[in-house]
Amino acid sequence: MFRWMRSVRIAAGKTVPALAWAKEISEYAKKYEGIPSIDVFLDAFGEAGTIRWMVDYPDLATLEKTQNQLLADQEYFQKLESASDLFIEGSAIDIVTRSI
Fold first, then answer.
1. Reduced to 3 states, what is the DSSP secondary structure of residue 37?
2. What confidence tens digit (pLDDT) does each residue in 31-40 have?
3. CATH code for 2-98?
4. Is residue 36 within 8 Å of 54, Cβ to Cβ?
5. How far apart (Å, rounded) are the C-alpha atoms in residues 32 and 35?
6. Domains of the chain: which residue ranges?
7. Which residues contact 19 (CB under 8 A, 6 or more apart)?
8. How many helices (H) and strands (E) does the chain have?
9. pLDDT tens digits for 41-85?
10. Taking Cα atoms as reference points, which of 55, 7, 62, 60 lies closest to residue 34?
11. CB of 56 closer than 8 Å to CB of 1
12. How many CB atoms lie within 10 A of CB 89?
């Protein structure tokens, strides 16, 4: 199993709309084949105001297929651009881990 995780920091004063958008974009992305569910988290400890999305994939091929679908979706990119003021620029981090 492989886990993809994206984290991003919420901009000052934008917590409520950022949390709503995080849930909205998760629901939108579930339409892609290979994404059975997307878990959304808000850090309770550590750096305050960090949102994390996590998706588990059975293999790297499925992850790659999903990523290719996202990269070809102009509506997805429009949704990302519409939320640019909700998050701190340059704070997004993507990580892929594997189970052992």
1. coil
2. 887 787 899 9
3. 3.30.70.100
4. no
5. 6
6. 2-98
7. 10, 42, 51
8. 3, 4
9. 999 998 889 999 999 999 999 999 999 998 999 999 999 999 999
10. 62
11. yes
12. 10
